[in-house]
Design a protein that fits this description.
6-stranded mixed sheet; 21% strand; globular
């Protein structure tokens, strides 16, 4: 499980620009996943070999000054509660504002690493102006420019030094996380599975990692269920409930092998559900989509399920090889089929293809349809193999890997899925110099 770094601060100081710069360090992530309430962003980044999840708390809705300040307070408090390190970003052009002072008051009281980042410092004169930020009482600061990236290396060097080391779980049991937005039926789903109502019905106090492991051992299946239903303890907070649920989902997803993404059929596959889906995909977790409350959908016709499925697949392109089940926790319709499917996806995620078999399958396909010539150069793929990683990753060795474009990599992935069962599992394809 990687650490969480939150970027906090008032609007228009450059948080999102800095966020985009960090997540684009990883080639697999080309932009921020957006679309949840108030356009918050979530992604993964790494620095000096240390991986971490990054959360941009930007995009507040501006009401009156009082509402604005209250909203910033809530956002920062949530970020403080969940994050392992906090970047407090300010703007050298504007200097210290009242809202900056309010945020700094909150941050001075916390017992977590806080890094004061003074943005838009792109010349020596502005570097001198940054001295005033000592007045915020947070100690030393880091000057940087989100636009061109100058100064960000020093900040990231300092951050990765304080991030906790990744703790490997000792249990060999598969871990299935039940994730989704509030009120999708996650608690009811787990209670229906274990046959009891004693779990996850009250708030979980005293921990930021409050995902609960429930050992499940029935009907020949044995695994740990990782639940995120504890978000209900913040139900009285209206505006930030969506944000809080996704922060919890980050923890639960990283703590799992397969994610059971539960959504409310009456609400559809909306922005936040899609956001959680891409979080799981980018963390290389197995995924099963469960459309709950199917019994409440009115005017069902012969093709209703097909149309609903097509709509979801359109939203998750190009990763459409994902099981989608329509269930009802209330009537227990297909809930055990959901567990069977999750076990299948777990097994798919652990498939190891012998190198000889892999070459015998893929090389004839590549020979029939080789990579298109690029800049007059012809790419020849001579050998391929599965990498020894916890999830499916494949290396194709060729003479000019830099000339193999994304569409051809997607073609290889599609052929992999046609010939081997990787349903519900993200696949990574790498081109390597022979």
């Amino acid at each position: 499980m990687s650490a969480i770094v939150a970027i906090v601060g008032r609007p228009n100081v450059g948080k999102s620009t800095f966020f985009n710069r960090l997540i684009q360090r990883r080639e697999a992530i080309v932009d921020a996943v957006s679309g949840v309430t108030r356009d918050r962003h979530y992604g993964k980044s790494d620095w000096n070999g240390k991986e971490f999840s990054l959360i941009d708390t930007g995009g507040y809705v501006v009401g009156s000054d009082d509402i604005f300040e209250q909203e910033i307070d809530k956002q920062v408090e949530l970020a403080i509660e969940e994050a392992d390190a906090i970047i407090f970003m300010v703007d050298v052009e504007s200097g210290i504002t009242g809202m900056d002072e309010d945020v700094s008051k909150l941050l001075r009281r916390v017992n977590k690493p806080v890094f004061l980042a003074v943005n838009k410092v792109d010349n020596a004169m502005r570097a001198e102006d940054a001295v005033e930020f000592y007045n915020l009482g947070l100690g030393d600061f880091y000057t940087l420019s989100s636009i061109n990236g100058s100064g960000s290396g020093e900040l990231l060097d300092a951050i990765v030094k304080v991030l906790p080391e990744v703790e490997e779980e000792e249990s060999n049991l598969p871990r299935f996380a039940v994730v989704g937005r509030p009120n999708a039926g996650k608690s009811s789903f787990i209670n229906a599975l274990i046959g009891e109502d004693r779990y996850i019905v009250t708030d979980i106090a005293g921990t930021t990692r409050d995902s609960i492991d429930t050992k499940y051992n029935r009907f020949g299946f044995e695994f740990n269920l990782v639940d995120t239903a504890g978000i209900r303890r913040k139900a009285k907070v209206k505006e930030d409930l969506e944000f809080y649920s996704v922060m919890r989902s980050v923890r639960a997803i990283e703590h799992s092998d397969v994610c059971l993404l539960l959504l409310d059929a009456t609400r559809g596959f909306d922005g936040q559900v899609e956001n959680i889906f891409w979080l799981a995909q980018r963390n290389n977790k197995g995924i099963v989509i469960l459309v709950n409350k199917w019994d409440l959908v009115e005017d069902k016709e012969t093709n209703t399920i097909k149309h609903y499925t097509d709509k979801i697949k359109k939203a998750i392109e190009p990763f459409t090889d994902v099981p989608i089940l329509f269930i009802s926790v209330l009537t227990k319709q297909r809930i055990f089929k959901a567990i069977e499917t999750a076990v299948e996806v777990y097994n798919n995620r652990n498939i190891k293809i012998p190198t000889r078999k892999f070459n015998d399958t893929m090389l004839p396909i590549i020979e029939n349809y080789p990579p298109p010539a690029y800049k007059g150069k012809f790419v020849k793929i001579k050998f391929c193999m599965q990498l020894p990683t916890p999830y499916p990753q494949f290396a194709f060795f060729c003479n000019l890997p830099q000339y193999v474009r994304e569409p051809y990599k997607r073609y290889l992935e599609n052929k992999l899925r046609e010939n081997f069962n990787f349903s519900g599992v993200p696949i990574s394809v790498f081109m390597r110099k022979k």
